[in-house]
């Protein structure tokens, strides 16, 4: 992602910051940085209204599901076994590269053994929260990264497993 903003992006960022001033005050210096806030606008084609709605909804969901507390939550060992992921280094720009062997993820077995959708989603959210925390702890505000390279391996993927009543 480029750190250079177009005039349209700068104007939208200024409006966006004014609209979400109450939220920006709650964010740390990384999350409140223009390089992070622009992501909300770009995700909504520079629509300040849509970006504001999206960030407010995100903050509501984070609060409802205690996302900021996920780093302290222990998940069953079976989750790590059934849903493995492997951080494997950095690319030339310093962006983390992670392999997700999705083809061998056994979501169906987890659900059939009593792990509900919410628990699985919180586990996955914890993975991303760990990444965000890692990036904040290992980069300065001047050179922090807002990206991750995910290599998703679909070998052994079976569509029928995901079409079952409770395959996920």
Q: Note the main sheet.
A: 3 strands, mixed
Low-confidence stretches: none
Class of secondary structure makeup:
mainly alpha
Radius of gyration: 18 Å
Q: Given the C-alpha coordinates, what overall shape results?
A: globular
What is the share of helical residues?
40-55%
Number of separate structural domains: 2
**N/C terminus separation:** 33 Å
Strand content: 5-15%
Per DSSP E runs of 2 or more residues, the count of β-strands stands at 3
In the sheet with the most strands, the strands line up as 1-2-3
- String of helices and strands: HHHHHEEHHEH
Total helices: the number is 8
Mean pLDDT, nearest integer? 89
Name the assembly state: single chain
Protein name: CRAL/TRIO N-terminal domain-containing protein
Domain CRAL/TRIO N-terminal: 33-58
Organism: Allacma fusca
InterPro entries: CRAL/TRIO_N_dom, SEC14/CRAL-TRIO_domain
Annotate the secondary structure layout.
Elements: H1 7-19, H2 21-24, H3 34-43, H4 48-64, H5 77-82, E1 86-90, E2 96-100, H6 107-112, H7 117-138, E3 149-152, H8 159-163
Parallel strand pairs: 2-3
Antiparallel strand pairs: 1-2
Helix pairs in contact: 1-3, 1-4, 3-4
Description:
The chain has 168 residues and is mainly alpha-helical. The protein folds into two domains: 7-64, Helicase, Ruva Protein, domain 3 (Orthogonal Bundle); 75-163, no CATH class. It is built from eight helices and three strands, in the order αααααββααβα. The protein is globular. The mean pLDDT is 89. InterPro entries: CRAL/TRIO_N_dom, SEC14/CRAL-TRIO_domain. One of its GO terms (cellular component) is cytoplasm.
